[in-house]
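Ticket #182: bound-state structure for 2-acetamido-2-deoxy-beta-D-glucopyranose.
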Amino acid sequence: MEVYLLSFFCLILCSSYPLFISAASSNVDQLCNLLGGWYVTPQLCHSVLDSHPRSRTTDLNGLGIIAAKATAAKASSIAADIQLLLLKASSDINQQNVLKTCLKLYTDVVPLLKGAITAIEVKNYSKAETVLYAAFEVTGKCDNAARADTFLWSSLNHYDTEFANVSWVAHAIAAYIERYGT
Ligand SMILES: *[C@@H]1O[C@H](CO)[C@@H](O)[C@H](O)[C@H]1NC(C)=O
Ligand SMILES: *[C@@H]1O[C@H](CO)[C@@H](O)[C@H](O)[C@H]1NC(C)=O
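RESOLUTION: The complex was predicted; output attached.
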């Protein structure tokens, strides 16, 4: 009887112990510690992935999809914000041109990013890596256009930095899986 009880408790404790260990070191923790080669700090990686409800339970492919979707969502919301800035903009033709340039960049990248999400879903990581790198380059292009106008530069630079952060993390995840597998 005692032996039976003991093994019963071991069944509970011994089987829950490894679960506890793996929960403490989830895929997201492991992945975020591995992206340094792409200059992604664990903090930056976590800032993109942690808020998603599935980030602690999904696999590397799922984390890649979460990051690519976050990049597409960010591009859409930045495009919507720039559209508003354009509506409120003065009649200054230079400011309007800067805003139109950035609006086109962030609008055009959204369908490309949908392609990157699909590419990760079908495990074509090299395609995803290429598209996400091209998305990251949007930030430099908008930033360069915005430099022509001090008034707009600070708000556009903030959007560019936000987008650079999320797109670079998504790119690094696709590049990591492309190199080392899931
Ligand atoms: C991945 O996508 C690229 C670019 O679209 C394509 O050339 C390549 O054949 C695809 N690879 C696979 C394995 O589907
Ligand atoms: C971008 O990431 C860096 C590094 O984690 C962080 O310091 C910065 O606040 C982020 N910027 C924006 C606008 O999200």
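RESOLUTION NOTES: The pocket of 2-acetamido-2-deoxy-beta-D-glucopyranose (ligand 1) is lined by residues 124, 127 (CB under 6 Å).
TICKET STATUS: resolved
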